[in-house]
Design a protein that fits this description.
It is found in: Cytoplasm. It holds the Pfam family ketoacyl-synt. It catalyses: (3Z)-decenoyl-[ACP] + malonyl-[ACP] + H(+) = 3-oxo-(5Z)-dodecenoyl-[ACP] + holo-[ACP] + CO2; a fatty acyl-[ACP] + malonyl-[ACP] + H(+) = a 3-oxoacyl-[ACP] + holo-[ACP] + CO2. One of its GO terms (biological process) is fatty acid biosynthetic process. This is 3-oxoacyl-[acyl-carrier-protein] synthase 1. It is a single chain. With 426 residues, the protein is of the alpha/beta class. The protein has 2 domains: 7-254, Peroxisomal Thiolase, Chain A, domain 1 (3-Layer(aba) Sandwich); 266-420, Peroxisomal Thiolase, Chain A, domain 1 (3-Layer(aba) Sandwich). Helix content is 34%, strand content 19%. It contains 16 helices and 15 strands. The chain has helices at residues 20-29, 38-42, 57-60, 66-69, 75-90, 116-127, 138-142, 146-155, 170-183, 200-208, 248-254, 283-297, 317-328, 342-345, 352-366, 380-383; strands at residues 5-14, 17-18, 34-36, 49-51, 105-111, 161-162, 189-196, 239-247, 260-269, 306-308, 337-339, 368-369, 396-397, 402-409, 413-420. The strands form 3 sheets. Strands 1, 2, 5, 6, 7, 8, 9, 10, 11, 14 and 15 form an 11-stranded mixed sheet that branches. A two-stranded antiparallel sheet has the order 3-4. The longest helix has 16 residues, at 75-90. The chain is globular and about 65 Å long.
Length: 426
């Protein structure tokens, strides 16, 4: 048996709320962070809306030194440092001294692609023969591990400091990586999360694939429609979510607030075989991942009372619900409550799993199940599988005990984590 692992800190930089208080209120009230983006219209995008955190310049000054801000042009790093630093402070952890790192503290913070705007800026300077004007931070802002390097240095972490990348599964995968390291006794606490850059150079490829909604440019808040019969594609988003995972003995020793416990989880791939492809999940793999996560967590599928799905507002939503039903062997009124936060934040790509995991943990804190938006016209295939009462449109008063959270990413990769309400050792 490994060490028990709990969650002691949360931070978020989401399209509908920067900071835990604003994000919580937004989820409770179904407030959307999806807005019209004039820059996308100017560039002739078909989909001219997106979810992007609104970060004030004076807020950024509290997280970076003037030297760090010089030439900083990587939105993902800004989002990640805000969320990660907030989670660290929320956990009551101190920043290591200037002389010695904290050997028991680590960072596992993922991303998909980082510093695209900085890279574009650098390419232009190189093409113009101005390579010496790139500045000393161009490499730090464009390497994938830039976000973990920034956070590791700001906090002074001396344990594993690394970046993972598995498309939309990144954030959920990072939680499992941190859980396994702490459970094995290799670290006391790890800051884990993920971030995604924002802007046309991130979202353009998806617009070219024609998988984004183009008929909601004048009505952005209704565009992202998970589980809806009228869903026509996901809305791109960006941001970052972060949490501190910690061994139970360390948390008890520090007297830390415990939000929830990580009971276990699983990761796998469909190998892009069968119905699986670079962009679509293999249903057998998804079901195997969920089943393995439940088994690894030591719980019965019947004990799961809430699910936060991947549910991107595409034609694959009914398939995902079918996979949950098959994996848990539950349907109808016996199905857990299920929700998707993408109706209000869009699909935040590499940051999706971490932002949504933060929202999932907040349901334990608030004793709520946050409502789904834009799915009053529930897809008939979903309605045939799950009782509509299990897909609440408004936030419900409910005390979750065991929650399953899954993410499924491009490349046919899957991750499922099981969270539990913390109970004192007997």
């Amino acid at each position: 048996m490994g060490k028990r692992v709990v969650i002691t800190g949360l931070g978020v930089c989401a399209p509908n709320g920067v900071g835990i208080a604003d994000f919580t209120q937004a989820l409770q009230n179904g407030k959307s962070g999806i807005r019209f983006q004039s820059k996308l219209k100017d560039l002739n995008f078909s989909c001219q809306i997106a979810g992007e955190p609104l970060v004030r310049d004076n807020l950024v000054n509290h997280y970076f030194t003037p030297l760090q801000l010089r030439g900083l042009n990587a939105s993902g790093i800004v989002f990640g440092v805000l969320a990660g630093t907030d989670a660290w402070k929320d956990a009551g952890l101190s920043i290591a001294s200037k002389e010695t790192p904290d050997w028991n503290a680590g960072v596992i913070f993922g991303t998909g692609i980082l510093g695209v705007d900085k890279l574009r800026e650098s390419i232009h300077q190189i093409d113009e023969g101005k390579v010496r004007r790139l500045g000393s931070t161009s490499v730090l802002q464009t390497m994938a591990s830039g976000i973990s390097a920034y956070l590791g240095g700001i906090l002074g972490c001396g344990n594993q400091v690394t970046t993972n990348s598995s498309a939309c599964t990144t954030g959920t995968e990072g939680i499992l990586m941190a859980y396994e390291r702490i459970s094995a006794g290799k670290a006391d606490y790890i800051l884990t999360g993920s971030c995604s850059d924002s802007g046309p150079y991130i979202w353009g490829g998806f617009d070219a694939m024609r998988i984004l909604p183009s008929n909601y440019n004048s009505n952005p808040a209704e565009a992202s429609r998970p589980m809806s019969a009228t869903a026509v594609g996901f809305v791109p988003g960006s941001g970052a979510g972060a949490m501190v995972l910690e061994s139970l003995e360390s948390a008890k020793r520090r007297g830390a607030t415990i939000y929830a416990e990580v009971l276990g989880g699983a990761q796998n791939s469909g190998g892009q075989r069968g119905e699986g492809s670079m962009t679509a999940p293999n249903s057998e793999a998804v079901q195997r991942c969920i089943v393995a996560a439940v088994k690894n967590s030591g719980v019965e599928s019947a004990a799961i009372d809430t699910i936060n799905g991947h549910l991107t507002a595409t034609a694959k939503d009914p398939v995902e619900i079918q996979n949950w039903c098959e994996a848990l062997q539950r349907s109808g009124h016996n199905f857990p409550y299920i929700n998707s936060f993408k109706g209000t934040i869009g699909h935040c790509l590499a940051a999706a799993g971490s932002i949504e995991c933060v929202g999932t943990i907040l349901q334990f804190k608030e004793n709520k199940v946050f409502g789904n938006v834009n799915c009053n016209d529930l897809h008939p295939d979903i309605e045939n599988l799950v009782a509509s009462a299990k897909i609440p449109h408004q936030t419900l008063d409910f005390q979750p005990n065991i929650t399953a959270k899954a993410s499924f990413g491009f490349g046919d990769v899957n991750a499922c984590v099981i969270f539990g309400r913390y109970k004192e050792p007997e």
